[in-house]
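Q: Sequence in, structure out?
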Amino acid sequence: MISSSLGGAHFAAALAALALGLVVLLARKGTDLHRLFGLGYVVAIITVNVSALGLYGLTGQFNAFHGLALLSLATTGWGLMQVMRRRGDWLAAHLTAMAFSYLGLLAAATAEVVLRLRLFRGLIRTPADIVTFGVLIAVAFALVGFVLIPRLRKAAAVVPR
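A: Exactly. Output:
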């Protein structure tokens, strides 16, 4: 249940980022559509993470989810910087950063769905259990990323501009 306007903004931005990121992922790279939806994704993911930094209802203090939001901001910022600077192997760095950014978003969405549907209610009872479970999901998605993203980079038909 969304209990504040900040939580509502966080949720709405997360839904927007999921949709925009999917379009960017599926669209041909380097096109105007890719750039437009990519910019929308960046704005949405920044909104998601900045709003996450203001949500303390779970534990009442800074916790691992806030740390993951900071990591997501750094990853997305790094990917955006690659496009703006275009130095060295910027295209591979951009793809890697943005793929990890989207994977992090998918991890957060997965954790949210599992927790909201109480799929592991016997195992997850306290806020500390929730944080631990969320971090484990994030680690699992990161491991998948370390396996899949190098393959994606090789297979991607990226058109630099």
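Residues 127-155 form the longest helix (29 residues).
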